[in-house]
């Protein structure tokens, strides 16, 4: 079990959030406090937490995740990984900071605090509680563990603007938007921070030691975003860490901005490590670039949208050519060395494509179900067809028919054989053998696509990336910057370089593509069975050895199972054993499951696009919420039910949930229902033992995770009910069963310090959900656990449901007299005021239980409610309703 505790700050330690985009954003109240603080007090570090949320040790994936963080690192590097495990199953994995190896660095006032555009930004997060707390003290081996404080405003920077000497380098292949990033780095540094010493390194990494540095000013880069390519030049190979860092040191450079793909980011990490080894005060900021969109962790790389858009022109041309000839075939090759994202999105966008081939999805030519047979059929049906092929597709097939020695580029990347040309010949040969007249036009727009300037949306994206990089570097961090679920984040280098982003053909997007093109999956049942078996074997192996890379067969298998992910989830969940236990673990399941819901799939694109464009989560929230409506509720319900038992990780980067699950959940909360996440634990509420907090307010602030063992006898009752309900739910809904087990009760007499929160703003933060709920508990009226159907994941129950046991509990706003308004606080008592943060689950099983139990689901229910719920009619009616609801749902 997690051992560290999270100690809440005193009230006066809690500050207003700063700009999410800007770790160095000022916030005057904090500054005042900081300045007024005790002499010699070290200013708090700018907020840096990069979190990886994990669940408990009991889950195999927990081990996998924890190991994964260091699996790809050498021992020496792993020692610098800053992992801290908190009580909520969080592991914080900080990005590197200058003070990690230069502890006594002075800080300086942030020039941004006088910037009118920035100082007005007081709240940048969707909610205060979405932030990860700022770590202020780390006491290793201390019984108290790690101390946290809310991510406060960052008014200090680690560089004085006049001392900054920044350089920018671009490496690897070209990509639309490179010039925009360069421009925005130069302009951002000079306009926001008044930095004037900015240099361009020419022709990639080797330019550090083989070319002159190019002075850059806002004026000199004014127009460059209108041109493709990079004004600095780029190259592959030539990364000599020692020489590069020698030059950085000799020239007094203290901020290095490195734009490039995964190879480049690996190089950036090497540079950073050498800088750290030498103890130089130099910040290294990586800005990930690749047209292939194959960089891990981030939502997408800049230039990708532009590439997809430009690819349309080639596909249109191919379509025109093909449809203007008898048995015409238009073949378009697009970039994508290891990942077929451009091909997939361009195909989906076009709707003219009959077949899309990508590296992740193996295909074969001859025989039943093969590509040639499909071409034959399609030509007979339609007289023409368009094929899009990613350059990395079918490389194994080509190698079989044209044996050539493996060749590599200067960076060691494998040089690809031309799949387009090879396919053209194969198709021609096939048609000839069938004596079929045909015309094939092969179009290779790859470099034309890569060389254009970025489109409007990529321009905005590039600007935000550049600005984020600047803020992070000024605040003393070294990181790769990126958008993660629509939020800008700082990511440790090793996380983006340890793996590649690939099209998952078990995912919905590929399923959409298949249904759009109607192409065969190129899989035989035998393939699928073999792949499944391999997958199973490899998965169990992986769980045992956490963090090991998937074997080739698993990866292949991954690509070979076009099973809908939801179906897969159902299967997994059905297979899970469900021991009896407490609500608490069920909550954890829910929590971890919420974190793994691929909600990006169901949140309309507009949501993330908007947050990208506006960089304003608040606005994107509102509009997303309005737009999604009933469908959204339904999907969310489905997702939560399916995923609720999967114990996986949630990654949080710089306070940004990688899982976008917060969005819909928050949406629900704003609708007046529960947000579906759990409240903070005792530790998060200041470690106050529940039994020692008879005050109802304190009780309300308890973590729902700990309700069962925190609210005395009444809570025991709740716990019992919860066990029963969990079991009942497991039985009633095989696919939705909750695996539960007895939870450890906190040691009696736990006397961790506690500071009572007094107002909504003052409630001390805890990581993620904990924070949210601590605050919610303080500010929201009591919400009974019997608020069936209130969760966003549960369809609103019929009105009769309320009459069963929630007539006084309907803070959820469903069919209740209290709908749309906050119910009054209860004047005392504890058991009846336990907050449900588990509505998707609880509502499902709890109300069921409530019908059979005198007093409904609430052990301390009012006499009216008890009589109602005890009534047989009510129970029968409730069961009927439940059945009906389930029927509707399963339909
Ligand atoms: N493991 C590594 N360690 C240090 N430097 C590296 C490493 N891999 C690549 N590099 C350097 O990074 C630079 C760019 O790498 P590469 O040619 O692979 O392009 P990339 O950054 O992956 O971009 P693209 O997506 O366009 O291929 C090269 O100068 C190369 O020497
Ligand atoms: O620029 P080069 O060396 O021809 O490399 C081309 C490769 O670069 C990329 O554009 C980006 O990695 C790939 O799509 C492509 O395979």
UniProtKB/TrEMBL annotation:
GO terms for molecular function: 6-phosphofructokinase activity; ATP binding; metal ion binding. GO terms for cellular component: cytosol. Pfam families: PFK. InterPro entries: ATP_PFK (IPR022953), PFKA (IPR050929), Phosphofructokinase_dom (IPR000023), PKF_sf (IPR035966), PyroP-dep_PFK_TP0108 (IPR012004). Residues 166-471 form the Phosphofructokinase domain. ATP binds at residues 173, 236-237, 261-264. Gene3D superfamilies: 3.40.50.450. Its cofactor is Mg(2+). Mg(2+) binds at residue 262. Its EC number is 2.7.1.11. It comes from the Eukaryota. The keyword Methyltransferase does not apply. Substrate binds at residues 290-292, 335-337, 391, 447-450. Residues 1-44, 673-711, 741-891 are annotated as: Disordered. Belongs to the phosphofructokinase type A (PFKA) family. PPi-dependent PFK group II subfamily. Atypical ATP-dependent clade 'X' sub-subfamily. Catalyzes the phosphorylation of D-fructose 6-phosphate to fructose 1,6-bisphosphate by ATP, the first committing step of glycolysis. Homotetramer. This is ATP-dependent 6-phosphofructokinase. It comes from Urochloa decumbens. The gene is PFK.
